[in-house]
Amino acid sequence: MIPLQPLVNNFLLNYHLGHVLLFTFAVTTLGALPLKSQRVIAVNLVVFGLIFAVAPFSTMSAPYILFGLVLIVVGPLLWTMAE
Description:
Elements (H helix, E strand, L loop, with lengths): L3 H9 L4 H16 L5 H17 L7 H20 L2
Pfam family, one: DUF8006
Protein name: DUF8006 domain-containing protein
Keywords: Membrane, Transmembrane, Transmembrane helix
């Protein structure tokens, strides 16, 4: 029988916090799309932008933090354009 822990460790060592946050951002955005509300998407963008920006720099690389800053700017723009 193959031990499970080395398989899980080899899989998880390839990912860091930025990958996990990006995956959850994509899942929540796809989950909010059926609501057809621009304001819900805007809140989602701002919240994940803040999470990306506040996350420790040592746990993920710089593009993820810059992506968070972009989300912080785009979210309020989408909120103001929503009907």
